[in-house]
């Protein structure tokens, strides 16, 4: 145990990395020699008492983990600092926080006696690279488009992304993860269904577009239809804007800044614009406006049927 520090302060917004660091630390101890406390329920005095307590069999190396220590007050930091002046020789104290200032009293005390481990979540623009590294840690490769799509589908929360990455890595069985795999397996939220719908529309795949709508309605019901129409109409408008910018010689990445959208979304819109003529996009805007009116009482047909008919109209190639 000589190589281990008396205390580790593990903090940051990258929960998957924090979880991995804790797992590596826990693996150094016997299962019965690890005690976990929550700082919201246990003040620093409880943590110190746990560190000073004898193990189950009267001794041996022990690990005490305290989660959420950002909730502790100044008095708790002082208690920990006093303990670390003469810490239990065979016990390691691991303090975990979602955020912590390096110049805080607790951080200074831990840095003096042990080690600070900071793991901040990657910035939005770096998430695809972060996803790729997560796959590599699990012994699986993934192409860049798959990583970018996973971020677009799942969102920016590292823990949710890690959960989906683990699922995809397990399913792939060591084979490279592709964009098609992400489409098939990544968890779908209502916003994800909208993404799948707009992507299918952009590829002019009416069957896939209808299937995505059916999937959404199975979960949320017909009440989602007006919102779905609005989101699809917004995407068509974005594609029209990108088509105009592309004609002016602008690249997708520059357009993303102009339109204030994620670069991935801009690149998708540019790709979709290549599949439609300007007149088709103009007609799609009109047809979706008619659909919106129909859903608001302008038609006696069921909303689902109106949506399906309009979706086929705006997706199929013009004759």
How would you characterize the overall build of this protein?
This protein is of the alpha/beta class and 319 residues long. Helices cover 59% and strands 8% of the residues. It has 15 helices and five strands. α2 links the parallel β2 (34-38) and β3.
Features:
single chain, 319 residues, alpha/beta, five-stranded parallel beta sheet, 15 helices, 5 strands, elongated
Give the arrangement of secondary structure elements.
Elements: E1 7-11, H1 15-26, E2 34-38, H2 44-52, E3 62-67, H3 74-84, E4 91-97, H4 105-113, E5 115-118, H5 127-137, H6 144-154, H7 158-172, H8 179-185, H9 190-202, H10 206-220, H11 225-247, H12 252-259, H13 263-273, H14 278-298, H15 303-315
Parallel strand pairs: 1-4, 1-5, 2-3, 3-4
Helix pairs in contact: 2-3, 3-4, 5-6, 6-8, 9-10, 10-15, 11-13, 11-14, 12-13, 14-15
The helicity comes to 55-70%
- Which geometry do the CA atoms define? elongated
Radius of gyration: 27 Å
Strand order of the largest sheet: 2-3-4-1-5
Q: N- to C-terminal separation? A: 76 Å
Tell me the major beta sheet.
5 strands, parallel
């Amino acid at each position: 145990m000589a190589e281990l520090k008396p205390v580790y302060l593990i903090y940051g917004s990258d929960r998957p990395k924090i979880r991995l660091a804790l797992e590596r630390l826990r693996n150094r101890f016997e299962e019965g020699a690890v005690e976990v406390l929550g700082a919201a329920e246990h003040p620093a005095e409880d943590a110190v008492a746990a560190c000073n307590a004898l193990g189950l069999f009267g001794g041996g190396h022990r690990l005490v983990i305290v989660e959420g220590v950002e909730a502790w007050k100044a008095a708790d930091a002082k208690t920990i600092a006093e303990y670390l002046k003469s810490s239990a020789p065979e016990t390691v104290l691991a303090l975990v926080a979602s955020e912590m200032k390096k110049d805080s009293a607790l951080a200074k005390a831990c840095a003096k006696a042990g080690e600070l481990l900071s793991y901040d979540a990657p910035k939005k623009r770096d998430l695809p690279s972060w996803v790729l590294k997560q796959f590599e840690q699990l012994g699986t490769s993934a192409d860049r488009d798959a990583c970018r799509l996973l971020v677009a589908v799942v969102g920016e929360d590292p823990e949710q992304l890690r959960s989906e990455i683990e699922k995809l890595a397990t399913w792939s069985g060591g084979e490279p993860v592709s964009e098609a795999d992400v489409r098939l397996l990544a968890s779908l939220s209502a916003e994800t269904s909208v993404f799948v719908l707009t992507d299918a529309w952009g590829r002019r795949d009416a069957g896939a577009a209808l299937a995505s709508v059916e999937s959404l309605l199975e979960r949320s019901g017909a009440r989602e239809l007006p919102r779905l129409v609005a989101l699809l109409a917004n995407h068509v408008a974005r594609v029209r804007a990108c088509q105009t910018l592309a004609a002016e010689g602008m690249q997708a990445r520059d357009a993303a800044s102009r339109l204030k959208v994620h670069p991935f979304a801009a690149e998708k819109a540019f790709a979709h614009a290549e599949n439609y003529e300007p007149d088709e996009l103009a007609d799609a805007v009109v047809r979706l406006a008619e659909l919106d009116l129909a859903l608001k009482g302008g038609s006696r047909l069921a909303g689902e049927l109106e949506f399906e008919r309009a979706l086929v109209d705006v997706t199929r190639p013009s004759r």
